[in-house]
Amino acid sequence: MLTHFEIAKHLISLTAKLASRIENPVPYLFAYVDFKMEFCMSRETHLAALGQRHDALDKEITKELAHPAKDEVKLAEMKRRKLQLKDEIAKLQCDGSIPTLH
């Protein structure tokens, strides 16, 4: 029987393989588990990582909007991911009673 750590490691590995197939991926993968230390991220660290990914997507969206031949499908996907990140950040802030920065 697999341990929780082994399952998490396997899922993260599969996610990374799938993400590598995306053309021009915005770095949005993260690991909750540090494989060397075998511990989970703190909520604050996780929120910071989510915020960085949200900001990176915002920059990519701005860059794509400035491009004369914008890819509407790519823009829609990036906007969808940005909204998902925003929702996840809001959920973590509510769950952990962490004060918002807004």
List its traits.
102 residues, 3 helices, 63% helix
Structure characterization notes:
The protein is mainly alpha-helical. It is built from 3 helices and no strands. It has helices at residues 4-19, 43-66, 72-95. It is extended.
Overall mean pLDDT: 76
Extract low-pLDDT stretches: 26-32
> What is the β-strand count?
0
Strand count, sense and barrel status of the largest sheet are:
none
The percentage helix is 55-70%
What fraction of residues sit in β-strands?
A: under 5%
Can you write the helix and strand succession as a string?
Answer: HHH
**Sheet/helix structural class:** mainly alpha
Radius of gyration from CA coordinates: 16 Å
Brief write-up:
By secondary structure, this protein is mainly α. Helices cover 63% and strands 0% of the residues. Helix 2 packs antiparallel against helix 3.
Itemize the secondary structure elements and their pairings:
Elements lengths: L3 H16 L23 H24 L5 H24 L7
